[in-house]
Amino acid sequence: MKKPRATAATSGPDGLAAASDVAAIVAGTHGDPFAILGVHEVGKSLFARCFVPHAEFVTAYTLTGNIAGELSRRDDGGFFEGKLSIRKRQPLRYHARNAGGDWWLTDPYSFGPVLGPMDDYYIAEGSHLRLFDKIGAHVIEHEGATGVHFAVWAPNARRVSVVGDFNEWDGRRHSMRDRRDTGIWEVFIPDIGAGRPYKYEIIGPDGVRLPLKADPFAFKSELRPATASVTAVPPAHPWGDEAHRSYWRKADHRREAISIYEVHAGSWQLRDDGTFLSWDELADRLIPYAVETGFTHIEFMPISEHPYDPSWGYQTTGLYAPSARFGDPDGFARFVDGAHRAGVGVILDWVPAHFPVDEHGLVHFDGTALYEHADPRKGFHPDWNTAIYNFGRREVVSFLVNNALFWAEKYHVDGLRVDAVASMLYLDYSRKQGEWIPNEKGGRENLEAVTFLQKMNKEVYGHHPGVMTIAEESTSWPKVSAPVHEGGLGFGFKWNMGFMHDTLEYFSKEPIFRKHHHNDLTFGLTYAFSENFVLPLSHDEVVHGKGTLLGKMAGDDWQKFATLRAYYAFMWGYPGKKLLFMGQEFAQRREWSEARALDWNLLEFRPHRGVWQTVRDLNYLYRSRPALHGRDCEPEGFSWLIVDDSQNSVFAWLRSAPGGSPVAVICNFTPVPRDNYRVPLPTAGNWREIINTDASEYGGSGKGNGGMVEARAEGGGISATMLLPPLSTIMLELVAD
Fold first, then answer.
1. Three-point CA angle 619, 620, 624, nearest 5°
2. Among 32, 324, 664, 734, which one is most buried in terms of CB atoms within 10 A?
3. Containing domain of residue 689, as a range?
4. pTM score of the predicted model
């Protein structure tokens, strides 16, 4: 890069800085320290000026070790200046001395800027898609020196400084250069590398010093309760997951088996002393477990840095930093690579809807409402006491879009599940009349958020076609998972919250009353193909006094287990991708808490082991039978066989897809076995029972049909007469001739 010309500074004919400039540098109030400090032309000579607190003497050297001049102390606070013997502007090192000793430092103000005019252009336009390579803290070589380049967006600040243990947290020492066209401040600090805690000291537009701010683009953070950012090099992991990524790049996710295991990394398991597992320990335990249980993907609740454990990660202060709770960022890269090598994808919960108001975070970042809306009717979230991103500001949109691209590129994640989308889409979300501002058309839709989500999805799918995005969206907003060019939001999938609500409501009813609620299970099929759905039985249903899935099932203990197994098979046979929260695969009895590990000892007991075996076998069937996944999002893959037998609480349907035999799913949701029950089937012949949730190996009563039923043509149709076990779901597959 072409070096900038030496700056002509305000000085007298003798080359000395004006007294007012010296005083402002020492006080830390100078608006443009690069105009004073560093190397400057005065006439035909070069002068150096530096601010080195504690020094009594300073000698300037070139980076190659040649003496460049003795500097005189102009101010006892540590301001030095002097004429140089060198003829060409270049970076300098200083040898500082006092009565207690001596030390060396390289002058950050003797270096030119790192960012260039094209960076300014794309940043200002909001179209820069590699901000994470430019903003934040980057260990680099620059003009012959190694150090860290810091850059941060704070357009309304009077001064921004980098502070850390390398400068005694003194904001006067490393004031940054203001790139006025973009509001970006930058400085290259030589002689430091990775692993150094730092923050930004910001003087707001009113001259008030703000609480120290963590870096919004920090790639690493301190372990809570400490809140500083930490300089880090990008993950240098040697990836070995090309086969996995290549497969998903070419795949149509809607027609693939996707069975997601939702995990809170801080409480899946813990060490014996109660501390968190590291990413490497999680890899050794969680990945083999997910493989054995048959899940295709692990979805982590947010792992970006967050200060408060009970927020579960949903109130993040460091969107670019994997949480220090589980080790360094490279550990997370190793986890993802290990999962991919084992054939398991990794999805991250991602939270662009809001952020916490912790003082070290984004709130009033430069002394103004920068990332958030100034008006609380748009900028404050009443449910969570958090700030809402200003989606109408291109720099904020760019910050968030770049973050989505960052996780896909740097950590090879397979998907982003976007949290709280409904709260983003509606201006009146959780607000009373008068507490929200209509959009420009007078409506309640947040048009700026819609544009942001569309842009995010376009960029993610455009740059990383193997990555999927999933919306947690609880309303009937149209076309959430339709392409942007068709007027949709552009997500790959949407959580089917109605399925979760209706089915749990149904199974909480005593069996004798279920006939009156038959519609709870059939209604979902009227809209099952309006979106590309994921069926979630998520953490939201097993916290805050809601109990567990096992506890929600009606009946005595045997009936609860039987109903839960039948429910899972109903869900795995239902159109849509699957998601199960950790612990529910073995019927966790205690409500989940982020403060303790799951109750793994339950797997020693037959009923719990039976539920786990049911889930494992369902995952195997779902993945191995195209009929159960190949048309999850298309109505051609589903047809009712029995839809209106409310008296017996029996349901039956057919799943089909090219490349595999059709599968009939038959459910009996009462504890009464139904003998000689006639089920219509599309084809005469033998139909093999591929799962029966009442099997004794699962903890059931062992009733069934000997593994096979025969469908015959009679009475103008084809049907099979069979035994429907109590509180069960069975699946039958047509046996090829």
1. 120
2. 664
3. 635-734
4. 0.94
